[in-house]
Amino acid sequence: KTYLEERAFHILEQDSQEFIELLKRDEALEKFRIKYEKLLAVLRKSHENEKHLMKKCRKLSAEILDMSAKVTVLRNITKDDEETISSLKMELEKAWKMIDTAYEKEQEAKAKINSQQEEIARLNILLEQSSRDVCNIEDLLKHNEEVTKERDQLLSEVVNLRESLTQATEQQQDTEKAKNEAEQSLMQLQQDIQLYQNEKLQEAQKKEKMEDELKSLLAEMDKKQAENQNLQQYMERNKEEQQKMEENLKELKILNERATKELEELKRKNNKLMQESEQQHLVFEEVVKDVQQKTTQLKERDDEVSQMRLEISKLNKTTDVIQSKLHVAEEQKVDAEHEKSILKNQVSRLERELDAAKKQTEIGKRAADGLVRERDILSQNLIKANSATQKQINLVKLHEQTKQNLEREIQSYKNETEKQRKTIYQLEKERDNFINEINELKEKIFQHLNDLEIQQTQLRDCEKEIQAHVIKSKQQQNLCETLKTEKNMYSKNLIEAKDEMTSMKTKLKTLTCELKQLKENLKDADAALEKAGLEQQKTEKEKESLKAEVLKMTKQALETKQFIENQEAEEQKLLKIIAEADAEKLKQKKEFDKVLKERCALGTQLIRRNGEVALLYEKIKIQQAILNRGETDYRQRVEDIRVLRLEIKKLRRERGILGKGVDNAEELRQQLNHMQKDLLKEQTRCKILEEELRKPLQIHRWRKLQATDPDTYELILKVQRLQKRLISKTDEVIEKEFLLQ
């Protein structure tokens, strides 16, 4: 993907360089070229930043893989520790089994001691009976023999007791060894407890640091949430504005498509009009030539008309003379009629003269009729010439109107091009603003992504520390459970030792009582039995040995008491430590629950943030697609502008050519004005021309097509409205940018 993206970026750079070279050719687009180069520089920087971020992501992914490998190793180590713990538990169970066997042996020894005590009580009873029967020496001797026998039995029993004592001492040594081992284990436990307390202090310090960091993170998260909410609101506003702008852009696209279609139609019409204008220019030149020829002909005709007028005036004068003569003749006729009677002779002569005069008048009338006919023909020719000139004037007017329409259309095209330039400039500004906004949003998104990555790493570290704390707490719980079990076992052992001590104390008391009784009995026996002195000395020696043993037993009892007291003190200390450990365990559980809740909350927040980031990425992709479309549309518009500029240059050239022709047209206009004045004078004179003027003239087909283009006008109005809306929207966007800044 990266190779394809770099290849696409390389292709885009090549296309942009070609486009910049095209823009360099046109000096009018220098500002646009500079802005485009700036945008390219920004795009390159963003691409380099993207590469840098991709490298960072790869490094972080590699570090994550290393950390996961370390976590697996630690898990394996914990599994090995669990196996060692299970093996130690098995050894402890074996030790407890050994202790149980020793306890059973002690119970057997106790049973033997009880049986021996019963025998001693029986012997005491026998001694009492023997004290009653002291009178008889023989009985005493017999009794002495029996006592010696019993002594031997007692000695054998003492040997047995010594063996049992040795066994008890061995068991006591074993118990002392177990006690020493227990003390060592207690020392180890105390050391472990001290280590645990140190670790707990370190963990408390870490926990305080973590709490401070969590508080700071929560504050930052609150800030980020507020910023995200603001960004969401801003993005929603931007969405609404983008939707509005998209709708406006769609409308503008539709209008642009319509405008392009209408421009194509107008281009076609313009081409047709240009062709027709060229044809009309040629026709106009021909008409001008015809007008010049006809003006010369009219001048000749005017001269002829003036000559004819002179002739007509002469004829009128002759007709007046003839009419006066007729009046005179009529008067003479009347006089002749009156003088008919007188002038009958002269009637024939006068009739002849009258006939000759009539013939002459008929000839004059015929000549006048011919002149009238010629006048009518001339008037008809004048009417035709006037109609032709009127047609030519109408054609000239139509040409002027078409020229004015073309100039208006050219002006409208110029206005439209200027408006389009303004709209293009505004759209470029908006595009730059949108690009800047998108870059700012990208930077913010990258910042948020970096912050989220940092927070994720911190959360991972927190989770790892929490897992370590959980593992330590589990280990501590296991240690506490083992301590509790050991405490229970030691308490059981203490209770059993106390019971044994009480039993031993009772036994010692009974033995001391028995020894006292035996001493009294022996004193009585020594007083009574002198013969048995040696045996008594032996018994005293044995008694001293027994005393020494009793002293040893008392010393051992005292030592056991001290040991029991020490164990009770240590037990109280251990109970205090266990209580403190339980309290700390509860605190740690509460803190652990809090941390779990916070982790859940942070997890939900991370999920939301990931969703929001995904939505932002989708929106960015959509905006990038829109920007790509806008760039393609912008390129098309630039090409259209270039074509329109070329057409404007052509129109300017044609306008210059037409302007050169307009210099001659002004002279023709002056001549036409003079001709129109003359024609108006003749129209007032001629009734026929008045009748023709009253009739409507034939309207030329171009007159019907005059100003019949309402679609372009409506489109211009729509473009103006949309421009106003765009200006208002750009003002709103600028105000919002100021507010955001």
TrEMBL record:
Pfam families assigned: CFAP58_CC
Keywords: Coiled coil
Coiled coil: 99-589, 634-692
InterPro entries: CFAP58_CC
Domain of life from the UniProt record: Eukaryota
Annotated ranges, domain Cilia- and flagella-associated protein 58 central coiled coil: 355-659
Gene Ontology cellular-component terms listed: cytoskeleton
The name this protein goes by in its record: Coiled-coil domain-containing protein 147
